[in-house]
Amino acid sequence: MLKKIISMGITIILLCNCFVLVKAENIEAPEIVSQVNTDVSAQIVNSKSAILMEASTGQVLYELNADEKLPIASVTKTMTMLLIMEALDSGKINYDDMVSTSEYAASMGGSQVFLEPGEQMSVNDMLKAIAVASGNDAAVAMAEFIGGTESAFVEMMNKRAAEIGAVNTHFINCNGLDETPEHHSTARDVAIISCELLKHPKIHEYTTIWMDTLRDGQFGLSNTNKLIRCYDGANGIKTGSTSIAKYCLSASAKRGNMQLVAVVLAAPTTADRFGSATKLLDYGFANYALVDESIFTEPIPEAVVVGGDKEKLQLEADGTLNFVVKKGNQNKVSQEFIIEPEITAPIEKGQKVGEVHFTIDGELVAVKELVAKESIDRISLWKMFIKALNNWITV
Questions:
Q1: Residue pair 251/225 in contact by the 8 Å Cβ criterion
Q2: Which domains does the chain have, with CATH numbers?
């Protein structure tokens, strides 16, 4: 009997010590071999600046002077539409809200839907006017509706651009109509903004419209983005042109599970901007494929917990499990789970506890973090005693 009591005491002591004796090993950062080659010497675009990006990963597939600050004309409205969609998704505004047109909004020139001062139009129709007809007046009306004034809305635009990593962008208006050196962006930043906009699936209901009407069929709309009608998988986003900016375009298309964004800035003609975007998208779809979460054919293993009120921890991949590979390699990917052998409680939900390594022909092509799917507290002294008592009873 004495030996059993001593044994139980030793068990409790060991369980207490596990909080300080067991340490998680650091996982060394492995070297990743990229499947993407952006050093392409072939002439793909006829423009001053361009970029091709996979939307879900932000992976750049091609670039040309992508960080040069340039005027972007009405491509500015990609950011305007992003803030509209975010206001809709947050519940700040609704699609059937009626928006009144101020004299200032009605005074806009260039592309417009000829709003009259005091005229009311729903958010749904205003968004249609912006996405399809590139209405400068509708953009200002929506800016005032969301921000109170256009200047306040523009401040929101610049703040949001910085938040999502469009660090070389600065707006002075919501529509790109009045161009000064202070109003600029880059092909890379436009792609970043466009990818953020595409996270709102409902925007496709507007950017894919080819022809429609406003005012109960009295005013016709025709999409300024000609790729919507003639390019397989095209689903957006925005054109822009002025004498200073020349011809600009943020074009998007989706085939299978891969969504691409092609940005062309300062093309000499409208044919060049559409032709260059077409070549960029063709290049992306011909050469690359996207691997997604469907690669997980088996459950992610559980981790062993030391000193916790649970002995097993469920894991999950952190964030979206997407990465780009060369076309033809998407079915050659192998996976290996690298999980720390013992994880000491307490454990917080979302805490990194391992990695999953993806290889093709023995080369590491992607790494995704594995994180705790739940929180696990340290085992209490009472539970520790009960556990030790159960162990003693079964001896």
A1: yes
A2: 18-34+294-393 (2.60.410.10), 49-288 (3.40.710.10)
